[in-house]
Amino acid sequence: MSLASHVPAADADEPGKRLFVQRPKVYPADIHGRFRRLKWLALIVLLGIYYVTPWIRWERGPGIPDQAVLVDMVGRRAYFFWIEIWPQEVYYLTGLLIIGAFGIFFATTLLGRVWCGYACPQTVWTDLYLWVERKIEGARTERIRLDKAPMSAAKLGKKAAKHAVWLLIAVATGGAWIFYFNDAPTLTREIVTGEVSWKVLAFAGLFAGTTYFFAGWAREQICIYVCPWRSFQAAMVDEDTHVVTYQDWRGEGRAPLRKSQSWEERTAQGLGDCIDCKLCVHVCPTGTDIRKGQQISCIGCGLCVDACNEVMAQIGRPGDLVLFDTRSNQVARAEGKSAPVRLLRPRTVVYALIMLVVAGMMVVSLMLRPTLDVSVLRDRAPLFVTLSNGDVQNAYTVKILNKTHTARDYRVTVEGLGNAELSVVGEEGRKGTALTLSAEADSVATYRLFLRVPGGAVKSGSTDVVVLAEDTVTGEVGKHQSVFMAP
C-alpha cells in the first residue's frame, strides 16, 4: 500500500525544495446511488441518536436525575436507562470496550473498513460539513474555481456563510456532548440564564473546536494519517473479505471513449471498459484512485461504486466495474469462474464468540448483581489494643453501599470469633454481638467499629473473620473477609 499519491515527497538534497509538497486539496463530488443513500441513512440515524438521546427522560425517583443516558460525574454514577453503574463497577465499561473493539474486528473481517465509511464520527460529521459546503459553494468544479479566484465580495460571503454554518454545527455538537454529563433541561436553563459554570463552557468549546477542525479542515487527513485503524485493518482482512475492488481484468487498458469508436474497436485495440473519466476519484472523500488497488486511504464507503455504475449505465456497459467483492472471487472471475462466499471463517467465528461470551457475562452479572456491598478496612496502627481487663480489641472502618433508592437498615455481625462484641466508635451504649446500622438511599454509609474479644477466647496472631451485613427488609447479605490480630 502506498501513500505516494497523497504525500509526494520532495528531494531533500535538492536545494530550494521542501521536504514535503503541500497536500492537494480534495474536492469530493456529489453522487447518487445505493451506497450514497446508505450513507445518508447512516448519517441521519447516527446524528439523530447523538442529538436526541440526552433528552430522553427516565423516571428514577426523588433526588436522582431523570435522564435515560447520563454520566453523573458529581454523583459518581452512570445511568443507561434501567441500568445504574457505580464507580466500583467500572469493569462494565471494560466489557463494553471489548465488545466494541471486537465488533469492529468482526465487521472489518467481513466488509473491510465499513465502520470507517459509514459509522465513524469523523466520517459522519465530515459528510455533514461537505453537504453544507456543496449547498453554499456549489458543485465540485464550482468550488475549485471559487478557491482559485481572487478574493471578492461574493467569495468572501460564501466562505463566511459556510464557516458560520460549520461553527453552528460544531457548537451544537459540543453542546450535545456535555448534555451526556449533565441533566439536559437543567443545563439548558443554566445556559439561558447565564448561570452555567466556566468549566462546562470550556468543555463544550473544546468539543466544538475539535469538531470544527477535524470535520471542516483536517477531513481526510485524519483518516489517512491520524487514525490508527488504517494500519490495523491490514491484519483484519483476508482473501474472503468484501472490500471495494476494481476489476482490472475487465477495465484495463484505460482510454477515453470517442464518439466514433465502437466497443468492438476498443476490444480489438486491447482497451477495457474503463473510459478513464476519473469520476470514481472525484467522488472519493479521501481522493483515492481505487483503480490502483487496495490503499490505506480507502475508507470503504462505496461512493466510487455508485459513480462507476452511473458512467457504465450512460455508455451502455455492464455495471459493477467497481464493486464490493472478495479477492478470491476476483481471481476466480478473471478466469471465468466464481468463488463461494465464506462468511464463517476461523477469525469471524472467534470474534463472534468473544463478543457473545463477554456480552453474556455482562448480562448475567447485571441480572445477579447485589444491591448491597460491604467493604472492611482494619486499622494497621496499632495492630491491636489489650485492654485493662485482658480483652483484645481491633478497630475497623466498615462501609455499607446501599444501591437501592430507599434508606435501609442492616444487621451487622462477625463470623469466625467466639464471644466477640461489636461497638460503634463515638456512640456509647451501641454494642453487642450484632449491630443495626443504617444507610441512606443510593449512598455509602461509613462507620468506625471496635471488635472486642476476651483474651482467652482468641488465638495468638492472626484469625480470619467475616463481617456480614444483612438487609433487614429483603434478607440480602453482603460480606467481606478480614482478620483479627491478637498478641
Fold and architecture overview:
With 487 residues, this protein is an alpha+beta fold. The chain contains 16 helices and 15 strands. The protein has helices at residues 34-52, 91-111, 114-119, 121-137, 140-148, 153-179, 184-193, 198-218, 220-226, 229-236, 248-251, 263-268, 279-282, 303-315, 327-334, 346-368, and strands at 69-72, 77-80, 83-85, 243-246, 322-325, 372-378, 385-386, 392-402, 408-415, 421-424, 431-432, 435-439, 443-453, 461-471, 477-486. The strands form four sheets. Strands 6, 7, 8, 10, 11 and 13 form a six-stranded antiparallel β-sheet that branches. A four-stranded antiparallel β-sheet has the order 12-9-14-15, with no helix packed on it. A three-stranded antiparallel β-sheet has the order 1-2-3, with no helix packed on it. Helix 2 runs antiparallel to helix 16, helix 4 crosses helix 8 (198-218) and helix 6 (153-179) packs across helix 8 (198-218). The termini are far apart.
Number of helices: 16
Which consecutive residue ranges, at least 5 long each, have pLDDT under 50? 1-15
Mind telling me the C-alpha Rg?
33 Å
Overall mean confidence score, pLDDT: 88
- Helix and strand content put the structural class at alpha+beta
Largest sheet: 6 strands, antiparallel
Give the overall shape: elongated
Helix proportion: 40-55%
Number of strands: 15
- Report strand %: 15-25%
